[in-house]
Amino acid sequence: MTEAAEAPDRPRVVLGVGGGIAAYKACEVLRRLTESGHSVRVVPTDGALKFVGAATFEALSGQPVRAGVFEDVPSVPHVKLGQTADLVVVAPATANLIAKAAHGLADDLLTNTLLTARCPVLLVPAMHTEMWEHPATRANVALLRSRGVVVAEPASGRLTGRDTGKGRLPEPAEIVDLARLLLAAPDALPRDLEGLHVAVSAGGTREPLDPVRYLGNRSSGRQGWALARVAAQRGARVTLVAAHTADLATPAGVDLVRVGSAEQLRVAMHEVAASADVVVMAAAVADFRPVATAGHKIKKTDRDPEPVALTRNADILAELVTARRSGQVVVGFAAETGDEGADVLEYGRAKLKRKGCDWLVVNAVGDGKAFEVEDNSGWLLSADGTETPVPHGSKAQLASAVWDAISSSLKGRGTSGDAG
C-alpha cells in the first residue's frame, strides 16, 4: 500500500495498538478520529496484529500499517513518525508496553516512535486488575507520569473470561475525547487533583406528572460527564451524581450514583458533599415540580385538562453553599439566555452574588448552544470578582479550564489531601 498524501492542516495522530484483547476497540477509536478530520497512522505491535489484521487498520485509516523497524527503511519511519506527530495515542497499552515505555526499550516501530515523539503522549491502559495493581506496573506508571506522559485511568468492568474489575479499556468515545483535549491543550491533564475527593452533578432532573409523563429539560449531561472525566484523569477521586442523561458510558475511574428527581439529587449531593473537597453543581435541576403525582396515566378526555399545580423545588446549590465546610470549594453552573432586561453575563453576576458559591460557570443557551451539543463556551466567574472567558471548544476543554481555576485556588489556600 502506498503512502497516503498528508493534508498539512489535519492534526497528525499516531495510534499505537498494544497486544491485548481490547485491540479490537482501537478500530472504533480510529474510525472516530478519522471521521473527525484527523490524519491517523496506526502502529500496532506484532501481538496486536494477532487480534486485528493490518488490512482492517489500513482500510479505516487509508495509511500503510507496519509493526517492524525494517520495513520501508528508506523513509526512516522509526524516527519520522514520532518527529512529525501532533499526538501519540496508545490504546490499548498493555503492562508489557507500559514497562518498555518507562524504561526506554525500543524493539519495534511503536516503542521507537514513543522514544522519538516530542508531542503529547496518551497511554490508555488495558489489562487484568492484578496486573494494573502490581507494584511494578504502578512504579512504571508513576515514572511515565513524572516525565509528562499522560497515562489514563482505566475503567472498571468486564475483563476477559469471567473476570471483572479495574483495568478495562475506556470506551472509544472517551479515548477520542481525551485525545481531542490534548491536541487542543497539551497541558490539560496534569495530575494536580490527586488526594482530592470531587463531587459532580450532571444531567437533567425529571419531575413526574404520572407514571408516563414528567417535567424535564434538554440537558444531555455531557458537560457534567466531561467535568467528572477530566477530574478523574487529573488524579481526583470522583463521585458523579447523575440525573437523566444521554446514553453515556460511565467515565473511567468515576463512581456513578443515579438519581431521577430534584429531591433525589438533593439527597445524594448532600450525602456525597459531606466528604468532598470540591462540589460542582453542573446538573440542570428543575425549579418546580407538580404538587401531586397521579398514580395512573392521566387520560385524554373531551373536556379541558385540569391545570397542573406546581411547587418550588429546594435550591440545592444554595443549600450546599450554606453547608460548606471550611476549605471546601463549591462551583455552580448558570444556563442563561438574556433578555431585554439584562444580558447573559449580567444575569450570571447576579446569580453568583445571590448563591454565594466560590465559582460560577455561565453558559449562554438556546440556538444550538450548550444543551444537546458536543461543544460549549462561557465565562468563569469568581467570588473575588475575576471573570475569565472560556472560548468555544469541546466540553472537555471547558472542564479543563474549570479545574485549572479550582486547582490554582486550592494551591493558594494550601489545601491538599482527601477531606473524607
UniProtKB/TrEMBL annotation:
Name listed for the protein in its UniProt record: Coenzyme A biosynthesis bifunctional protein CoaBC
EC identifiers of the protein: 4.1.1.36, 6.3.2.5
Domain annotation DNA/pantothenate metabolism flavoprotein C-terminal: ranges: 193-408
UniProt keyword list: Decarboxylase, Flavoprotein, FMN, Ligase, Lyase, Magnesium, Metal-binding, Multifunctional enzyme
Domain Flavoprotein: 12-178
Annotated GO CC locations: phosphopantothenoylcysteine decarboxylase complex
UniProt-listed GO biological process terms: coenzyme A biosynthetic process; pantothenate catabolic process
Needed cofactors: FMN; Mg(2+)
Keyword Flavoprotein: yes
HAMAP family: CoaBC
Binding annotation for CTP: 287, 297, 333, 351, 355
Phosphopantothenoylcysteine decarboxylase, as annotated region: 1-197
InterPro entries for this protein: CoaB-like_sf, CoaBC, DNA/pantothenate-metab_flavo_C, Flavin_trans-like, Flavoprotein
Native source organism of the sequence: Saccharothrix syringae
Entry keyword annotation includes Iron-sulfur: no
Family designation: In the N-terminal section; belongs to the HFCD (homo-oligomeric flavin containing Cys decarboxylase) superfamily.
Cofactor note: Binds 1 FMN per subunit.
Function: Catalyzes two steps in the biosynthesis of coenzyme A. In the first step cysteine is conjugated to 4'-phosphopantothenate to form 4-phosphopantothenoylcysteine, in the latter compound is decarboxylated to form 4'-phosphopantotheine. Catalyzes two sequential steps in the biosynthesis of coenzyme A. In the first step cysteine is conjugated to 4'-phosphopantothenate to form 4-phosphopantothenoylcysteine. In the second step the latter compound is decarboxylated to form 4'-phosphopantotheine.
Reaction(s) this enzyme catalyzes, per UniProt: N-[(R)-4-phosphopantothenoyl]-L-cysteine + H(+) = (R)-4'-phosphopantetheine + CO2; (R)-4'-phosphopantothenate + L-cysteine + CTP = N-[(R)-4-phosphopantothenoyl]-L-cysteine + CMP + diphosphate + H(+)
Region (Phosphopantothenate--cysteine ligase): 198-420
Top-rank taxon: Bacteria
Pathway(s) where this gene product acts: Cofactor biosynthesis; coenzyme A biosynthesis; CoA from (R)-pantothenate: step 2/5; Cofactor biosynthesis; coenzyme A biosynthesis; CoA from (R)-pantothenate: step 3/5
Gene Ontology MF, one: phosphopantothenoylcysteine decarboxylase activity
